[in-house]
Every structure is written in C-alpha cells, then in structure tokens.
Amino acid sequence: MSTQHQTPDGRADAIGGTGRGALEGVRIADFSRVLAGPYATMLLADLGADVIKVERPGSGDDTRAWHPPTDHDGTSTYFLGVNRNKKSVVLDLATRAGRARAHALVADCDVLVENFRPGTMARLGLGHQDLLARHPRLVYCSISGFGSGAGATIPGYDLLVQAVGGLMSVTGTADGEPVKAGVALVDVITGLHASLGILAALRHRDATGQGQLVEVNLLGSLLSAMVNQASAYAVAGVVPGRLGNAHPSIAPYETFPTADRPIALAVGNDKQFAALAETLGEPGLADDDRLRTNTDRVAHRTELRETLIRLLSTGGADHWSTVLLAAGVPAGPVNGLDEAFAFAERLGLPGIVDVPAPAAGAAAGRPARQVAHPVALSATPARYLLPPPLLGQHTEEILDGFDGFDGFDGLDGHDGHASV
Fold first, then answer.
1. Residue 368 forms beta bridges with which residues?
2. Identified catalytic residue from 187, 289, 400, 409
3. pLDDT per residue over 320-364, tens digit each?
4. 396: which residues sit within 8 A by CB, 6+ positions away?
5. HEC assignment per residue over 291-324
6. What separation in angstroms does the CA of 327 have from each of 14, 110, 276, 322?
7. Domains of the chain
8. What is the CA radius of gyration of the chain?
9. How far apart are CA 354 and CA 370, in angstroms?
10. Catalytic residue at 187?
C-alpha cells in the first residue's frame, strides 16, 4: 500500500507506491488533450488505472507549449499539472498506419477518452458506434464543449463557456464588468463529471458485460455546477446578478477589509452571527431587529457591512481569523497560493507531493513536485508512480507488435488533429 511521510520541507512524499490501486487492471486509451480530459484521466491514473496518453507527432498535447511558467527542464507547468502517472505514445491519426495502431491500442483497453470536435473520431473510424460494435465491453467517454448536436461546431474553450453559460454574469462587482474565474473552472468540473461517468459505466460493465457511451460537455457541466444560482432561476425564475464577493442568500458571507488585508467571513447561521458579534465587542448586534435572522441580515446587508468594516479595522486579518475561529466563526485571510499550500501543510494535508524523478532531460534525477490527489482512500490510496511523460516516451513500449494489426478497416486521408 502506498503511504506518505513528510519531507524535510514539509511536503508529502509518496513511498512504497507499488501497492494495488482501486482501479488496478483498468486500462485507458486517452486521446484527450488540454485540461478536462487529461484532468479526468490523471485522477483515475492516481487511483491505479493504466493510462496511455495518445499524442500527435511533433508538438503533442497543446499544453506542452503553454508557457511560461516552466520547470527546470523547460516543460510547461500547465502540462505537468494534469499528466502524471501516464505513458505517452505518439500516433499520427491522419495516416492509415496511425489509425491501425490506435485500433490495436483500443482493443487492449477498457476505456477510451476523447475530446476532439464531435464527429472527428467517427471520420477517423474511431467513433463510438464503430468501436462499441467491435468492442462491446468498452467504455467510451466523449467530452465536448456544447454537445454533439446543434452545438457541435462551437469551439469549447473554458472562457467562452464561462461567458455564455452564465458564470461570468454572477462573477465580479455589481458596478463592474463580468469577470471569469481565475482558473479554467469549467474544464475542471467537466473533468470531474467525466471521471464520475466513467466509473459509473465501469460499474455497469462489470455487472452486465456491456460497455456504453459516456458524454459530458462543458456547458451542461457548468449549468449543473451553478447549483443555487441555477436553481434560483429554474425554480423561482430569478436571474441572479453580480454581488462581488457577497452571497445572494447569506449574510455576512463575503470578504471585508481589516487593518492590513482582507478577511473572509462565512457566517452561515444565527449562532455563528451571535459569536461574531460577541468576539467583535458588540454583542448587541445579534439582538438588533434588523440583524436577528439571516433573512434580516440579507435585507440589511449594506448597513451590516459598514458596521463590520468599522469593527474589523481595529485588527489584522490573521488576528481576527485566530480569535474568530476560536469562537466558532468561519473566518480566514485571503491567501496567495504560497500561503494556501503552507496552510494545508499546517493542517497535515498533503498539498504537494514528490513524484519519482523524470527519466531524461535537465530534470532527470529531480523528483517532480505535484499537487496531491484530493481523495483520500484508507485501503487503496492514490499512488504517485510516474512523472508526467516526455512526448512519445512510451511509444515503442506500448505499441510494440501493433504494426501488423489486421482488424482495421478505416479510411485514409482524414486529418486527426481537429481541436475541441
């Protein structure tokens, strides 16, 4: 079983990581690139799946060229962040030989993941109908921007989906312009949905012997992830707007200035508000008719905010976080990522792990620093066995003997490099 210990600088280090993972025995042919698909397959690889990353000749996954920043070897940190525990093979899907080798690879896999534009894989003879007919136990996961119907031709970029999917309409200040999230959040959410769908389909396959098509798209994933905001519209017809860091249904639930830097207060009930008032030195606030209940506080949000800013101005964010947490009030400073990882380490959470060193390049012999898998399993924990692969590093190892595959009847002359 894989266990973890702390390195001298406080980072978690995977040791003894040759035990069985929860998904050991599951082999995935990963034709996806950029973020949603690679994130999903990395999560599954961490849990024991054998993931074969299929990349195009020359440049490979788009994110290999998305820099700065880079590591010591000049490799994009974007690519490194979602491609550990995988093996890379290079296939030119624009050629008959490349597609024949792809078919041979798929025949040896339980799962296929792809995020080409809808229709591209079918034109290459690698569509779900062809492959499920040939391999009925296959789980075929297709990730798109806007589905395979009327939205099939719309490019699926995270920024675009945040805009047309409504997320930007509720992000930013009320008097400012719409703002995107600071990370490609829709891609990440879609990757999570893809991994969930794959696991559900594998469960069904194991019970019935039948594989199936799993389809996820960025727009649908975002609409689901909008949760309370989407429900407000679906149930009550309310079209929410931008409130900055405030919450439409809870107060105080936002950031406030202090004597040095902002603090976040997430006061979710009346007991917490009473504790907040007591700790800030004005217990009478909890008995004020305008602030007695959460509904009252939402209705008088502006007055409450002005009062809290005045009270919080007498101390710094770290001071208030300490005393408020001690009083049972959810509070914390607005951290940078360096502070966020340090906070996780203080709590005993492995924010950063060391993955075995790359086999070649300037970083050879230097363990790769990676963000830890977010799911803790007591019997089959995440394993960190392989660093993100060099382009085509495992082509010969994986595809040796596949050149003579004679079960392929695909067509020649199609460009396999369309993007989502």
1. 355
2. 187
3. 999 999 999 999 999 999 999 999 999 999 899 999 877 666 556
4. none
5. CCCHHHHHHCHHHHHHHHHHHHCCCCHHHHHHHH
6. 36, 51, 8, 9
7. 3-227+350-399 (3.40.50.10540), 263-333 (3.30.1540.10)
8. 25
9. 6
10. yes
